[in-house]
Amino acid sequence: MLHPDERLRLCRARRLLRDPSRHGLPVRGVAREVGMSPHHFIRRFGAVFGVTPKQCQLDARIERAKRLLTLTEAPVTDVAFEVGFASLGSFSHLFARRTGASPSRYRARTRPWVERPGRLPERLVPGCFALMAAPPG
After folding, report:
1. For 32, what's the count of Cα atoms within 13 Å in the CB-facing half-sphere?
2. Helix (H) or strand (E) holding 47
3. Would you report the helix, strand and coil content of the chain in percent, each value rounded to 5?
4. Exposure of 107 by Cβ count < 10 A (0-12 exposed, 13-18 middle, 19+ buried)?
5. pLDDT (tens digit per residue) in 27-80
6. Are the CB atoms for 71 and 35 separated by under 8 Å?
7. 12: pLDDT strictly greater than 60
């Protein structure tokens, strides 16, 4: 069972790992910011969230890249750097491994779904969010 303070620290760490403005922050730095030793932090984070802190960070970068590729015309290289990758090659390799498509192919597949620039079409909004936004009745 988690102590409430530890739960708060782990949730804060997850927010830090997913924060695009802090994508250069190493896992050790996050552990230090939430007042935990790196080893204990990695172990407890994995037990609570089911992924390592690094996986959480990479998942957030890939999700942001997917959004940028779908909603903007930015070149793939710019997207890679925007989400915190140092090289186009490492970004493209990881993106393809995680999504099953290269960044360019992913963009070509998802761009037709965009009905209004800068906004996801309703069919791409998760059902739970659509239900929450639906008028009562």
Report:
1. 5
2. helix 38-49
3. 70, 0, 30
4. buried
5. 999 999 999 999 999 999 999 999 999 999 999 999 999 999 999 999 999 999
6. no
7. yes
